[in-house]
Design brief:
- The protein is mainly alpha-helical.
- The chain has helices at 2-28, 47-99, 102-115, 121-133, 137-147, 153-168, 172-185, 193-203, 207-217, 220-236, 242-251, 256-265, 267-280, and strands at 33-38, 41-46.
- The chain has a two-stranded antiparallel sheet with strand order 1-2.
- α2 runs antiparallel to α3 (102-115) and α3 (102-115) runs antiparallel to α4.
Length: 281
């Protein structure tokens, strides 16, 4: 903005000087004068002086406008400068967390908190990570909980932090409940929550839910292998496990645990199944 004002100022000054020279030459030839009268007050000036005066007055108005605009833009400029400094501290603070530099992470977290809005999700995330890095689990948990109030990505940051906190302290049920919330709130495909929820379901032996979810979070081949293993596990708890055992063998006839379980449950059925597979080959 200031460069633009300076550019226009130079143009107007050059224009005024040009007019001055032109009317100076004309004045020498008796070009005339301009008389201004207001009430009992009257002033007479050469024509060139009047034109130059109008030009300088216009220039003064323009300069006043530019100065006013600049003064009014100072608060916004200072705010942008503070935000740039805050984002710079945020980026360096997250790098310090990744590097395990506790003191630097805490210092940059405090600097980012001063320069960014109080509810800024990344500033809160940095504060929580710095607190966790310093061993202050309560402060980290409180900050991750505060992130749950955010309607944007901050909620996902908060849930992930609380899940990690719960897992690190052996609170499996709480971690599973939080992972369910994250999976429901996040994208149906991709993201960290669905796969983490699936892993936690396996760790907590929630076979039915994990079985239904396998095809959504795993590649086809891996999902098939996991379901084969879960068929065997689910069959052990069912009164009539034959269907699941046969399905596990249908996926992989060489899956020895399912074959042994089927043979133990119903030797005749297993013999017929193997005979049928031999004929098909």
């Amino acid at each position: 903005m200031l460069r633009r004002v300076w550019g226009w100022t130079k143009i107007l000054v050059a224009f005024a000087l040009g007019l001055r020279l032109a009317f100076w030459a004309a004045d020498l030839a008796g070009a005339g004068a301009v008389t201004l009268t207001w009430a009992d007050w009257s002033v007479t000036a050469p024509l060139w002086a009047f034109v130059v005066g109008v030009g300088l007055f216009t220039l003064a108005l323009f300069a006043l406008y530019a100065l006013t605009f600049w003064l009014l833009s100072i608060p916004a400029a200072l705010r942008r400068q503070r935000e740039r400094a805050g984002h710079d501290a945020l980026a360096r603070g997250l790098a310090a967390v990744a590097a395990g530099d506790t003191k630097r992470a805490q210092r940059l977290s405090a600097r980012a908190a001063k320069r960014l809005p109080e509810s800024h999700p990344l500033a809160l995330l940095l504060s929580a990570q710095a607190a966790r890095l310093s061993g202050d689990a309560d402060a980290a948990r409180a900050t991750f909980t505060a992130l749950l109030e955010d309607k944007g990505p901050g909620r996902s940051f908060g849930l992930r932090g609380l899940v990690q906190d719960a897992l690190s302290q052996g609170r499996e049920a709480e971690a599973l409940a939080l992972a369910r919330q994250a999976a429901e709130a996040g994208p149906k495909k991709g993201g960290w929550a669905p796969r983490l929820l699936y892993d936690l379901l396996l760790r907590n032996a929630a076979w039915d839910e994990a079985y239904a979810m396998a095809g959504k979070v795993l590649p086809p081949r891996e999902a098939t292998e996991d379901r084969r293993a879960m068929d065997l596990l689910l069959a052990k708890g069912e009164a009539k496990p034959m269907a699941r055992l046969k399905r596990a063998l249908g996926v992989d006839p060489a899956f020895a645990p399912a074959a042994c379980a089927l043979a133990a449950q119903h030797p005749v059925s297993y013999t017929h199944l193997r005979a049928h597979e031999t004929e098909a080959d």
